Every structure is written in structure tokens, then in C-alpha cells.
Amino acid sequence: MTDANRIPVHVGIVMDGNGRWARARGLPRLAGHNAGMLAMKEIVKRAASLGVRHLTVYAFSTENWKRAAEEVSGIFNLLVVYVDRELAELNANNVKVRILGDYGKLPANAVERLKRSIETTANNDGMRFNIALNYGSRDEITRGLRSIAEDALAGRLALSELDEALISDRLYTAGMPDPDLIIRTGGERRLSNFLLWQSAYSEFVFSDAYWPDFSPREFEKALEEYRGRERRFGDAPPAGQNNPSPKGRVE
Ligand code: IPE
Ligand code: IPE
Ligand code: MG
Predict the structure, then answer these.
(1) Would the CB of 16 count as within 6 Å of ligand 1?
(2) Ligand 1 pocket test, candidate residues 15, 16, 75, most atoms within 8 A of CB
(3) Ligand 1 close to Cβ of residue 18 (< 6 A)
(4) Whether the Cβ atoms of residue 172 and residue 196 lie closer than 8 Å to each other
(5) Which residues form the catalytic set?
(6) Pocket of ligand 2, candidates 16, 103, 131: which has the most ligand atoms within 8 Å of its Cβ, to mutate?
(7) 58 lines ligand 1 (CB under 6 A)
(8) In b/e form, how buried is each residue of 38-77, taking b as 16+ CB within 10 angstroms?
(9) What is the CATH number of domain 7-135+178-228?
(10) How far, in Å, from the CA of 89 to the mean position of ligand 2?
(11) 136 lines ligand 1 (CB under 6 A)
């Protein structure tokens, strides 16, 4: 079933391509991350105004520590700049910030800004803006399973209680609906350790645009592509529709 007005409740974005955007212009990688931050700002606004309830952006993975120290610290500095510039407006727009990932490992000034963002927006009930930072889905699942095992060993949990809902509850995304749509920019077609458990039935839209070039208009186009998808969750197609519509097979 497709619905012309259907807006995904939860959109995840793998914001990829900052480095290549910079290289194409003969600029340092950090210039790409700076441009990426500006792009993110615009997408957050557009997502909120379109009525997306949860926006989850992949900003720094557990594997991104492999990069040069200068790039890593530059990315965290940009995060501080972003919060300093944007927190008041995010709050005014009723956006609620949440961080997915072990962000306590970030530099102290970044941790402080993140905590401030969470606290300042704690009572907002508009769009949930989830920033995945030092996030890796395997790490997330491992931590979740460890907490379950600890509870089981301590006698707080019977094995019969272990089900899919319990695992979901022990992830950073606890309480959030699974992503309906995951967008990846930058031309690569992979998840790179983003929301592995949660994306079991997500729709994927891939854009060749580098993240800094991904405009609100491109975002709306991705939502349009999503609207044409037929989601079946393992069920048979509805009666009278034996073949998935061609639109259901975009990409
Ligand atoms: C995504 O852009 C941002 C982060 C991973 C922090 P990249 O920095 O991965 O850009 P490319 O893929 O090298 O172009
Ligand atoms: C994924 O991009 C992580 C983020 C966007 C934060 P990467 O650039 O790290 O992914 P790979 O290395 O190309 O798979
Ligand atoms: Mg990349």
C-alpha cells in the first residue's frame, strides 16, 4: 500500500561524503565536515517542518577513531560550534535532543555541550533529534546483551523473559520506533554499522550527492521515493496485487 502523503515517522541518515566533497574542491577534510554541519542544520529544520517525528543522524562511528587525530578532534570541535550556534533555535523549535552512543569518550567540552543540549531540550515534545556519536551498532548490541546477561546472572531476569522487545529495550534507541527510512548520501551503498538491529525492515534510499550538497530539496525527494515503496514486512502483497509495483522497486 502506498500513500501519497505518508511521511516516515523515523528517518535515519548516514551523512557520508564530507571528505570527498572537500577533496573535489582542493580543501582540507575539515572544510568538508564544516560544510556537512551546515547541511545538517538545514535538514533538521526541514525534517521538523515536514512532520518527521524522529530524525537520527550518524555523525561519528566507533570506527571513525581510526582517522587522523586532527580530523577526529576537528569533528568534535565542530560539534561544539554547532551546539553553541544552534541549541537556542532547536529548543525554540521544540526539538528534543538525544545522543546514541558512548559519547562520554568524547572530549570534555563536547560532552558538556551534549549534556547541555539534552537537558535544555528534555521537556520538548516536538521532533526527536537523535545524534549517533561514537556509535556502532555491534557495540550497542554487545552492551545490550551484556546488561541482559548481568541481570540474568544476578537473578533479576529469567531467560524466559528474553525476547525481541527486551533486546530493543537495551539498545540506545530504547523506546523509539524502528527507522522507516534510512538515507545514505555519498554514493556508498552500505550501513557501516548503523542501526543494524533496528533496520530489519527499513526502506533505503541512496543518494550520490556528497552530504554537504544534500539539500532540503534532496531530502524531500528521498521522502517522495519512500512514499512509492511498498512495505510488506514479510506479508504477501495485498489481494489483487500479485506483482510489486515498479515504484516499489526503485533503485
Ligand atoms: C562523513 O563523511 C562524516 C564522518 C564519517 C564523520 P566522511 O568524512 O566519511 O567523507 P568521505 O566518505 O571521506 O567522503
Ligand atoms: C559512516 O561513514 C559513518 C558516518 C557517516 C558517521 P564512513 O565514511 O565512516 O563509512 P565507511 O568507512 O565508508 O564504510
Ligand atoms: Mg565516508
Answers:
(1) yes
(2) 16
(3) yes
(4) no
(5) 16, 64
(6) 16
(7) no
(8) ebbeebbbbbbeeebbbbbbbbbbbebeeeeeebbebbbb
(9) 3.40.1180.10
(10) 28
(11) no
CA distance 243 to 154: 52
Task: Tell me the whole-structure pTM to 2 decimals.
Answer: 0.94
| Spacing, Cα 19 to ligand 1 middle (Å) | 5
Q: Which amino acid residue places its CA nearest to atom 9 of ligand 2? A: 64
Burial of 135 per CB tally in 10 Å (0-12, 13-18, 19+): buried
Domain locations in the chain? 7-135+178-228
Digitized pLDDT (tens) for each residue of the chain, 251 residues in all: 445 479 999 999 999 999 999 999 999 999 999 999 999 999 999 999 999 999 999 999 999 999 999 999 999 999 999 999 999 999 999 999 999 999 999 999 999 999 999 999 999 999 999 999 999 999 999 999 999 999 999 999 999 999 999 999 999 999 999 999 999 999 999 999 999 999 999 999 999 999 999 999 999 999 999 999 999 999 999 887 655 555 544 44
